[in-house]
Structure formats: structure tokens, C-alpha cells
Amino acid sequence: MDITTNYLGMKLNSPVIAGSSGLTDSVDKIEALARHGAGAVVLKSIFEEEILFQFEDVLKDAEKDGVDLDQFDYFDFHLKGKKINHYIKLIQAAKQAVDIPVIASINCVSSHEWTAFADRLQDAGADALELNMFFLPSDFQRTSMEQEKAYFKVIDKVLAAVSIPVALKISYYFSSLGPMIQRLSKTGIKGLVLFNRFFSPDFDIDKMTVKPSFVFSSPAELAMSLRWIAIMANKVDCDLAASTGVHDGPALIKQLLAGARSVQTVSSLYRKGPTHIETMLDNLKTWMKTHDYHCLDDFRGQLSQEVTTNPAAYERVQFMRYFEGEKDLT
Ligand SMILES: Cc1cc2nc3c(=O)[nH]c(=O)nc-3n(C[C@H](O)[C@H](O)[C@H](O)COP(=O)(O)O)c2cc1C
């Protein structure tokens, strides 16, 4: 049975990618993920702030954009430089240790000259680059158009700097999500990861304080990316990878049926360890055997909006008809 998939122009042994997180920040962890069937790994992101301040000449640009330089002292500067070198070494060592693609990840919020650093990741041997981009739309001075423009600016700069494939990991906070995903897919990037999941606040009502909410996703969170992978599957010019809420074999199968070329999983691996990838892949193979499928393309996208017999299901957003039979919901 063939469970290989093509993602970002690369052939992966399996469609399960270990997503960017602390699970991919060391060679030992990456080796374990590869051993248990990960098709690729996305390294823990290096953050724009960590890159930006390595280069003195870009400090001036950053200052112009309102970054307060006084808050960074020599020690910050020194530590950041060390962190970047550590990241480069991680890529080099991971590439030596495993045969699967190693995707470097940058968390970025601007198109500052940090983009010149992208080629150092490429030189270190990264097979691809995933840009994790997000601006919380709470800046009341910034229109949605300005917000969107920033994405295209970063993509242009990064694509000019590297020749390895570039993927973009986004959130669903866009005023017109479908058209935005489509436009992004036409920029020359090779993949879109739908969607990132963020650190969110919660309240402690006894201490009357704000605290972090759940760090890990729940399986129910699959719904958002499943809908959008299915809607966009045949409307984009790049690969789609599903992220958030992919916890088990059935969720993996659903995302492939929606049209994903790969899935990324993180919370499930934090909870169950790298061997869980094998379980997911075993589930996939058993299901494929039952349905007499020999490769992923035999069924990929079969429930995408354009292919399914019930495309309206993806447009339905209100619970109207459930009010009639509420007792059936339990
Ligand atoms: C502890 C932790 C650290 C993470 N760090 C990163 C990161 O550095 N870069 C990134 O793009 N996503 C990061 N993520 C988000 C994950 O890559 C993923 O998008 C998110 O957890 C949703 O997938 P899941 O439902 O499989 O957990 C992190 C998630 C967790 C739980």
C-alpha cells in the first residue's frame, strides 16, 4: 500500500508531518519522529525578533517602524545571535540524522531585512521554509487591506531570497478568508498550512486574573480546517496542509478526503508521544484496505466541496434546523 504524498514538490513517505513546536527542537526528538513514520518535520519557529537584532544595520529600519530599541541591551543582542547560530546548527544536524525533509520555520510579522536571513536557513540545508505569519487584528489604526498587504510584502521578499519551497501558515482571521487564501496561493508559494492555533487568554475567576487557556487543541477543533481545506482544495494554486485538531487516524483520513496533501499534528504527539504517528498510519492503511484504495490519490479530495455530492454542506453555517429536534443532540 502506498501512503506517500507530494508536498511542496517533495515526496514524503507519509502524509503526517510533525508540526512546529517544542517537539522538533532537538535532533533526538526529530530522529524519534522520523523513526515512527513522520513524513517530514517542521522545526520550532525562530522568531523575527530573534533574527532582527543580529544585524546592526536593520536596527535603524526597525526603529523607524516604532520598535523601541532601548529595551534591548547587549545581553539580548548576544543571546539572540547565539540562538540563531543554534538554529542553523539544528538544521545541519537534523539533515545529517534523518532522511525525511526538514522544514525550517520563521515566525514573522514584518518584511524587515530579516528576510535576508532566510537564505542562511537554505544554506544550512533546510528542505523548505514555513512562514508562520500572524497579526492579531486588534490594531485599530490598521485597515484590513493594510493588514493583508503585509502578507504579500513578506512573501515577495522571501521568495526573492530563497530557491527552496516556501509554505505559509496562516490563521483564519481574515475578513474575506476564501479569496485571501486563493490570492496567497497564487504568489509563488508552494503550500498553505490551514490553520495555525494561538496561545489564548482565559480567566481565573477565583484569583481574578488572566491566565493562559488550553495549550493543546482538542479533537473537536478539527472542524475549522476541515471545512476550509474542503472548500479551497480545488481553488488554489498550491498544496494545502491541514493543521489544528488532527489527533488520530480518522482525522487524518478526513483531511485527505477534504483534499489535504499532508496534515500537521502537534497536540496529539505531546499527549501520546512519537509512536502515535505509527498508530495514525496503521489506521489509515487499514481504512484504505477496507475501501480497496491503493494510494492516497485514489481518494484524496473525494469529499472536497467541488467533488462531493453535497457541496452546500460546506456553506451551511447556522444551526436553524436543529432547533426543531433539540433532544436528538445529546
Ligand atoms: C507547545 C507548542 C509550541 C508551538 N510552537 C510553535 C511554533 O514555534 N511555531 C508555529 O508555527 N507553531 C507552533 N505551535 C502551533 C502548532 O504548530 C500547531 O499549529 C497547533 O498546535 C495546532 O495543531 P494541533 O492541533 O495538532 O496541536 C506550537 C504549539 C504548541 C502546543
UniProtKB/TrEMBL annotation:
PANTHER family: DIHYDROOROTATE DEHYDROGENASE (QUINONE), MITOCHONDRIAL-RELATED, SLL0744 PROTEIN. This is Dihydroorotate dehydrogenase. NCBIfam families: PRK07565.1. Pathway: Pyrimidine metabolism; UMP biosynthesis via de novo pathway. Gene3D superfamilies: Aldolase class I. One of its GO terms (cellular component) is cytoplasm. One of its GO terms (biological process) is 'de novo' pyrimidine nucleobase biosynthetic process. One of its GO terms (molecular function) is dihydroorotate dehydrogenase (fumarate) activity. Keywords: Flavoprotein, FMN, Oxidoreductase, Pyrimidine biosynthesis.
